[in-house]
Recover the amino acids of this structure.
C-alpha cells in the first residue's frame, strides 16, 4: 500500500475495531496513499466550522499538496490514523514528530504535534477519545513520549477530549491559542478513564441489542414451522411493543404480512429504521443479509444460523469474515449459532429466542454459551415440581452461541448498571480474555453476586466454535483466581440455580453460624452434617417434632432469627399427613411472617417433595410458564407451543431502547426489589450517563401498537403485597447448605473487599539494579533459565536470600565445599528424577564431619549411579521446619500468578496449592498461606510449633514485587522453602527470563481481532 520510498512497511498491527460511546463500532487503521479519494470525500462532509477549528482559518477544500501530505506517511515520524465505518472515513488523527523549536525533526526527538478532525455527524460518539488512545499507543511504540496540541479557545469539545484523557498535562495560552502538552505514559487516572469509557461503550452496545425499538426476522419461512417462523411467533406472542417485520426474499411481491406481522422481501424494503435483525437464513446467504442490514442502518444482529466455526476450519474462516463484515457497518453480533436473547422488562417484553415460553419478570440475569444449557437454566428457574421448586424470574437472558463478537465480558458490562438485575448467572465454556474477565468480575461482584459454572474444564481445549487464546494454567488455578475476584464458582448448573435463587431472594449472611430447626430429627441431622462438611458452624438442630403446627414453626423461627449468635436459619420440613394444601399454605405464611420481622438474616427451607410447601412459599411470585396470550381477532393462532427441537438453535430480542442509568445514580438498589443488604453499583470514574435515546419513530400502519396498559398476563410482583420475603425451598439438605455456604463465602469476600490491603514498600529492594541485570541476561537470547549464581544474585536484589549449594562432582570436592560452608551440611542429588524427592533417599542431612560426608557420598553413588548422573551438591543445614513451595508464573492470557503450597505430596499428588493474581497485597499474602487444605501444619497442628507466618508472608510479597516490577521474569520457583518457628530458609530456586507477553489491558480499547 505504501511506496518503496517509505521507511517502514504498513503496520497492520495498528488496525483495530473499537466500540464507541453510543454502542456502535468503528475500525481504526493507518492512512495510506490509497486513501486519497476517501480523504477528499470525508473532508467535503465536514462543516466549515469544524474545518476552521482544525486549520485556524477558512479552509473550504484540500489542495493536491494537502492530500499528498495527509496520505503519505513514514509510520515513524509522520503517522495518520482514520476511523472508518463502511468504506468511509468518519474521523482522522495524525502526529508529526517535532524538535525543541517546534519544527519537524527525526528521532531521537520524543515530542510530536497531534491534530484531529471528526465528521460533524459523528461528533459526540467518542470517536476522538478512541483515536487519541490509539495514536498515543502508536507514538509510544515509535519512541515519542509527549504530545503537543494547539486548539482554538472556542473549540471546547477538542479541549475536553485532551483534558479528560487522564494524562499528566500542562496548559498555556499564547497568541490566541490554547497550547496543551501532556506525557503519554499511562497513569492510574488515564487507565481509570479508559476503563470507564470501555464500560460505557460496551454496556451501551449490549443495551442496543437487548432493548431495540424495532426488529426484523430475516429468513421467516412461508410455511409454519422452521427457525425463523418460530422466532417471529415467539417475539409476537411475548407482547413486544415495538415494530416487528418478517423478511424473506421468497415472499411473493404482493405479500404484505405474515401472521399479522408486516412482511418484506428485503430489509431494504422496510419503510423505517430497524434496530435489530435476527438472521436465520443458511450460512451461505448470511453475507448478503449483513450487507442489506448494514446499508439500512441496522444497529445489531443476532445470527442464529449455524455452519460457522462449529463446523470446522472452513466454517471458522467464514465466521471471521462474518464478524469483519458486520463491524464494517458498525454492527455487533450475538452468535453465530446462537439460541437467542430474552428481555422480560415490561417496557420491552422481548423473546427473540427459540424458548417457546416467555419467562416471568425477575431479578436474575442469565448468560450461556450453550443453547442446551440455556434451555436447562430457564427451565429450572421457572418450573414447578422437581429440583428447586421455589421459582423465580429472570431479567435478561443471552445465549451467545459461538461467541464470535458479543461475549460474557460485554454482558457483564451491561448487568453492572442494569437496575433490573440483582444476580448474574453465567455458564461459560471458555473465557476469551481472562485478565479482563477477572477485572470486570471483581467490579461486578462488589455490587451484585456473580455465579459462574464452567463447562469443558477438563478437556484441555476450547469447545469447537470458540476462538480463544490458550492458557497454560490448570482449571483449579483459574477457579482460584475467579474466587479471588469475588466470583461464586460452582461445579454444576444445579448449583448455579441453587445459589442464584438464594442470592436473589435473601440477604447476605453476616457469618457462618447456622441455626437448624424443623419437624424431622433425621432431616435436621443431615443438615447439621452438611453444614460441617461445607465449613459452616451449625447450632445443634432443634426438633419441633412431627406434631409441630404452623404457629410452632413461626415461634421457633422468630427465636432463632432474634438470636445474636445466629447468622442464618435452615428450616427442615416434612409434610403433615391429612392437612394437604391448606397446611402447606399455613406453614409457608408462618415462615414468611417470621422472616419478615428480621429482614437481615437469610432463611432457607429443606422440604420433602410430598406436599405443596415450596409452591406455597413462592406462590406470590410464581414464574412458571404462563398460558399463551389469547390471539387477537386478526391474529392467527400462536405456534409457540411447538417443541424446541423443531426449531433449532436461535434467538433474537426486541424492545424499546431506553438509556442506561447514570453510573453514579443515587437510587438505592433496594427500591428496585433486591433483598436487604444489597448495595447499588459504585460510580465509575468520569462516566457520565450515556445519551438518552427515545424511540426513533411511531409504528407504521399495520404494525401492532404498543398497549398503553399492561397486558392481562402481566408479571405478578416478586414480593407479596404484605412486603414479606420469598423463601427459597430445596429438596435436599446438601443443596440448601451448599448454596448457603457459597453465600457465606461471598459475603465474607464483600467485607474483605472494602479493605483489599496494600503492597508494602521494602527499603532493601534494588529495582534499578535488577532491571540492568535482567537486560544483560536477555541480551544473550530470547529466553533462558538462569544458573544458580545468577539466580541468587537476582533474588538477592529483592531481599530473597538463597542458601548456597556448591557442586560436588567428587568426594574431595564435597569435602572442600563443606569446609567452605561449615558443618553440619546436607548432601543432595539434584538430578531431575531425584530433585525434591527425599522419600527416594537422594538427600542426606546433618552430616557433622568429613567422615560422615564421605560415607554418605559413597552410599548415594552406590544406590543411584555415578556422580555425573546424580549431580550432587553440598548445602548448609537450615533450621528445621515445614517444607513449602512458592511459585510465580506469567500466563499469556490470565497474567502473573503467585502460588503457594506445602512441598512434596501435598502439591505433587493432591494439587493442594493456593493462587493469587500479582501484585499481591498484604491481605492477599495472609490469605494465600491459609487457603491450602494443609495449612494446619503451619499453625501448630497436633502440638507442633507454629511457623513464622510473618516471614513467609514477606517472602511472598517480595516475589510478587519482583515479578510485577519486571515482567521479563516469566517464572520463579522457590523449592523447598523451609519455614521454621523463627525465620525461613530458601534452599532451592530457579528463575526463567523471556521477553514479556503483550498486555492488552494496558493498550488502547479494542475488540478481539478477527
Amino acid at each position: 500500500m505504501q511506496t518503496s520510498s517509505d521507511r517502514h512497511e504498513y503496520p497492520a498491527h495498528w488496525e483495530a475495531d473499537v466500540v464507541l460511546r453510543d454502542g456502535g463500532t468503528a475500525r481504526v487503521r493507518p492512512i495510506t496513499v490509497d486513501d486519497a479519494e476517501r480523504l477528499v470525500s470525508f473532508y467535503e462532509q465536514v462543516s466549515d466550522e469544524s474545518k476552521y477549528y482544525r486549520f485556524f482559518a477558512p479552509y473550504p477544500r484540500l489542495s493536491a499538496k494537502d492530500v499528498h501530505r495527509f496520505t503519505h506517511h513514514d509510520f515513524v515520524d509522520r503517522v495518520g490514523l482514520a476511523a472508518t465505518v463502511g468504506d468511509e472515513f468518519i474521523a482522522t488523527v495524525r502526529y508529526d514528530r517535532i524538535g525543541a523549536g517546534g519544527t519537524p525533526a527525526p528521532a531521537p526527538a520524543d515530542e510530536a504535534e497531534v491534530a484531529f478532525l471528526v465528521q460533524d455527524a459523528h461528533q459526540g460518539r467518542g470517536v476522538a477519545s478512541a483515536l487519541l488512545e490509539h495514536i498515543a499507543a502508536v507514538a509510544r511504540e515509535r519512541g515519542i513520549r509527549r504530545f503537543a496540541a494547539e486548539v482554538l479557545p472556542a473549540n471546547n469539545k477538542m479541549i475536553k477530549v485532551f483534558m479528560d484523557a487522564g494524562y499528566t498535562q500542562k496548559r498555556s495560552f499564547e497568541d490566541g491559542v490554547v497550547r496543551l502538552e501532556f506525557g503519554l505514559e499511562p497513569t492510574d487516572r488515564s487507565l481509570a478513564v479508559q476503563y470507564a469509557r470501555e464500560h460505557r461503550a460496551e454496556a451501551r452496545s449490549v443495551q442496543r441489542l437487548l432493548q431495540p425499538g424495532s426488529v426484523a426476522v430475516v429468513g421467516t419461512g412461508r410455511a409454519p414451522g422452521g427457525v425463523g417462523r418460530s422466532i417471529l411467533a415467539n417475539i409476537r406472542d411475548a407482547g413486544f411493543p415495538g415494530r416487528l417485520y418478517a423478511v424473506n426474499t421468497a415472499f411473493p411481491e404482493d405479500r404484505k404480512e405474515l401472521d399479522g406481522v408486516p412482511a418484506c422481501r428485503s430489509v431494504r424494503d422496510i419503510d423505517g429504521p430497524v434496530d435489530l435483525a435476527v438472521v436465520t437464513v443458511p450460512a451461505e446467504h448470511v453475507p448478503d443479509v449483513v450487507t442489506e442490514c448494514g446499508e439500512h442502518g441496522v444497529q445489531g444482529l443476532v445470527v442464529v444460523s449455524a455452519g460457522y466455526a462449529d463446523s470446522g476450519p472452513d466454517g471458522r474462516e467464514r465466521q471471521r469474515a462474518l464478524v469483519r463484515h458486520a463491524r464494517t457497518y458498525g454492527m455487533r453480533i450475538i452468535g453465530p449459532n446462537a439460541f437467542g436473547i430474552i428481555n422480560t422488562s415490561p417496557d420491552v417484553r422481548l423473546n427473540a429466542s427459540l424458548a417457546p415460553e416467555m419467562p416471568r419478570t425477575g431479578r436474575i440475569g442469565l448468560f450461556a454459551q450453550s443453547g442446551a444449557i440455556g434451555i436447562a437454566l430457564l427451565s429450572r428457574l421457572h418450573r414447578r415440581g422437581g429440583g428447586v421448586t421455589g421459582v423465580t424470574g429472570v431479567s435478561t437472558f443471552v445465549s451467545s452461541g459461538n461467541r464470535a463478537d458479543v461475549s460474557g465480558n460485554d454482558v457483564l458490562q451491561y448487568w453492572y448498571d442494569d437496575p433490573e438485575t440483582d444476580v448474574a448467572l453465567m455458564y461459560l465454556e471458555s473465557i476469551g480474555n481472562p485478565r479482563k474477565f477477572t477485572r470486570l468480575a471483581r467490579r461486578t461482584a462488589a455490587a451484585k453476586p456473580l455465579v459462574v459454572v464452567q463447562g469443558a474444564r477438563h478437556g484441555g481445549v476450547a469447545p469447537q466454535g470458540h476462538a480463544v487464546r490458550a492458557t497454560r494454567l490448570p482449571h483449579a488455578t483459574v477457579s482460584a483466581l475467579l474466587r479471588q475476584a469475588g466470583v461464586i464458582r460452582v461445579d454444576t448448573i444445579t448449583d448455579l440455580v441453587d445459589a442464584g435463587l438464594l442470592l436473589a431472594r435473601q440477604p447476605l449472611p453476616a457469618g457462618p453460624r447456622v441455626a437448624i430447626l424443623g419437624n424431622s430429627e433425621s432431616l435436621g441431622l443431615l443438615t447439621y452434617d452438611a453444614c460441617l462438611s461445607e465449613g459452616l458452624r451449625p447450632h445443634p438442630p432443634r426438633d419441633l417434632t412431627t406434631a409441630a403446627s404452623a404457629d410452632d414453626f413461626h415461634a421457633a423461627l422468630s427465636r432463632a432469627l432474634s438470636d445474636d449468635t445466629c447468622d442464618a436459619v435452615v428450616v427442615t420440613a416434612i409434610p403433615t399427613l391429612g392437612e394437604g394444601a391448606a397446611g402447606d399454605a399455613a406453614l409457608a405464611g408462618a415462615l414468611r411472617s417470621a422472616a419478615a420481622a428480621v429482614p437481615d438474616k437469610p432463611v432457607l427451607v429443606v422440604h420433602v417433595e410430598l406436599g405443596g410447601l415450596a409452591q406455597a412459599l413462592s406462590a406470590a411470585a410464581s414464574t412458571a410458564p404462563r398460558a399463551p396470550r389469547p390471539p387477537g381477532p386478526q391474529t392467527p393462532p400462536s405456534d409457540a407451543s411447538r417443541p424446541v427441537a423443531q426449531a433449532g438453535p436461535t434467538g433474537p430480542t426486541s424492545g424499546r431502547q431506553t438509556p442506561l442509568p447514570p453510573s453514579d445514580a443515587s437510587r438505592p438498589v433496594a427500591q428496585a426489589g433486591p433483598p436487604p443488604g444489597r448495595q447499588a453499583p459504585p460510580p465509575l470514574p468520569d462516566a457520565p450517563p450515556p445519551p438518552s435515546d427515545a424511540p426513533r419513530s411511531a409504528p407504521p400502519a399495520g404494525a401492532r401498537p404498543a398497549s398503553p396498559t399492561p397486558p392481562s398476563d402481566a408479571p405478578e410482583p416478586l414480593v407479596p403485597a404484605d412486603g414479606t420475603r420469598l423463601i427459597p425451598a430445596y429438596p435436599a439438605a446438601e443443596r440448601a447448605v451448599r448454596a448457603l455456604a457459597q453465600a457465606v463465602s461471598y459475603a465474607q469476600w464483600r467485607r474483605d473487599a472494602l479493605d483489599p490491603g496494600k503492597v508494602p514498600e521494602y527499603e532493601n529492594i534494588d529495582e534499578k539494579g535488577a532491571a540492568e541485570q535482567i537486560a544483560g541476561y536477555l541480551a544473550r537470547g530470547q529466553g533462558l533459565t538462569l544458573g544458580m549464581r545468577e539466580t541468587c544474585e537476582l533474588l538477592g536484589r529483592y531481599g530473597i536470600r538463597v542458601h548456597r549449594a556448591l557442586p560436588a562432582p567428587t568426594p574431595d570436592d564435597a569435602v572442600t565445599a563443606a569446609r567452605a560452608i561449615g558443618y553440619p551440611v546436607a548432601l543432595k542429588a539434584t538430578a531431575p528424577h531425584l530433585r525434591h524427592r527425599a522419600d527416594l533417599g537422594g538427600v542426606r542431612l546433618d552430616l557433622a564431619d568429613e567422615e560422615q560426608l564421605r560415607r554418605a557420598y559413597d552410599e548415594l553413588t552406590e544406590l543411584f549411579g555415578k556422580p555425573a548422573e546424580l549431580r550432587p551438591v553440598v548445602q548448609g543445614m537450615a533450621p528445621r521446619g515445614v517444607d513449602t513451595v512458592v511459585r510465580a508464573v506469567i500466563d499469556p492470557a490470565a497474567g502473573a500468578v503467585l502460588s503457594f503450597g506445602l512441598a512434596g505430596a501435598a502439591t505433587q499428588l493432591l494439587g493442594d496449592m493456593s493462587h493469587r493474581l500479582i501484585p499481591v497485597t498484604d491481605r492477599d499474602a495472609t490469605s494465600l498461606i491459609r487457603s491450602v487444605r494443609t495449612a494446619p501444619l503451619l499453625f501448630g497442628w497436633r502440638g507442633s510449633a507454629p511457623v513464622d507466618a510473618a516471614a513467609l508472608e514477606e517472602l511472598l510479597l517480595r516475589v510478587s514485587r519482583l515479578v510485577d516490577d519486571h515482567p521479563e521474569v516469566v517464572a520463579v520457583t522457590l523449592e523447598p522453602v523451609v519455614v521454621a518457628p523463627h525465620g525461613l530458609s530458601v534452599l532451592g530456586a530457579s528463575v526463567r527470563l523471556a521477553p514479556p507477553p503483550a498486555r492488552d489491558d494496558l493498550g488502547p480499547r479494542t475488540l478481539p481481532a478477527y
Q: What stands out?
A: The first helix runs from residue 36 to 44. The mean pLDDT is 84.
